[in-house]
Amino acid sequence: MSRIRTTHVGSLPRTDALLAANERRHAGDITDREFADILTASVDEVVARQIETGLDIVNEGEYGHITSGKVDYGAWWNYSFTRLGGLELTDVDRWQEDNDVRSEPGKIRLTSFRHRRDWTRFRDAYTDPTSGILTHRARVKNPKIVGPLTYRGQEAVKKDIELLVHGLEAAGKTPRDGFVAALSPGSCARIPNEYYDSDEAVVWACADALKEEYKAITDAGLTVQIDDPSVAEAWDQIQPEPSVDDYRDFIEVRIAALNHALEGIPREQVRFHVCWGSWHGPHTTDIPLADIIDKVLTVKAQAFTFEAANVRHAHEWKVWHEVDLPDDIVLIPGMVSHSTNVVEHPELIAERLSRFTELVGPDRVIASTDCGLGGRVHRDIAWAKLEALVEGAALASRV
Q1: Are 97 and 166 spatial neighbours (Cβ–Cβ below 8 Å)?
Q2: For the chain, what is the mean pLDDT?
């Protein structure tokens, strides 16, 4: 039988050297050259470790997306702040903003994170610093849109590409074995807006800006992973709960904008990541996958990564058996979770994988993580989870 390949979603634990260098950079205590050398060495190290672990499709650990602080929360989103023109930095931390925005039928507006429906239901837990939900999260200043959105991250994405390709070549691999994560237009559009006259205009402006990043990644022969929790996660960020039809209209705009940004890019170089947010909360108000899966599958991507180990969504593997999948679609289910310190047993991973290989065959299944592991579990646990993932995929391949 064919061997089931393995990958992960993106963020990996930072090395001590890189964390220390980043602290020195923000303190002005290191030269650009010194930092660049440490970053390159760190990426070479994390690429080599992924390959030594047995992962087939690897990345640069999102090291090029690093933020200040010893814990990397939200780097998947925050990295874009320096790559987009038209933004002005504020003192607002998105998790601390107390703005109870209400929606109306047919007119969805996202409320602040503190007024999510899950947060409202479990407010005591979310505000308890000992609960483990949002503890040790670094405060992050967020921007607002004050002018036309433009892309100015050409040098930054070029560096991301160079770092990964250098690491791949050093490990005897090619760009075909690598991917780089990039923000979706729908996720970009969650930045507070003081310039555009509608939410939809922001989404399309984000698409026009970000398409340059997608093209740079794929022109280098790498796969672009579109990180888009906005398709599933945004459901919880709407007060009061909207109708499913209104929400489907809401995400349809975001998917149309993304497809516009992906025009001209080969589908086989695109994978689309769906998740319900990375925080360690109850997630009792997540939208069911069944309510959005048909919309998700209209994205111009060949592969789809999604949470299948998360205990709120592990049962949804059955949904994939109920949809009409095109013959070339590749499924990348999460087999290990970023939200628990328990390391999944390889036999459980193999059992989970069989649910998907029975549907599309082993050639069209790639075992992965639910979400990024960096900053969410201890580095030793993160690497143990990846080792278990590889072993579980090997077991499933021999069944």
Answers
A1: no
A2: 93
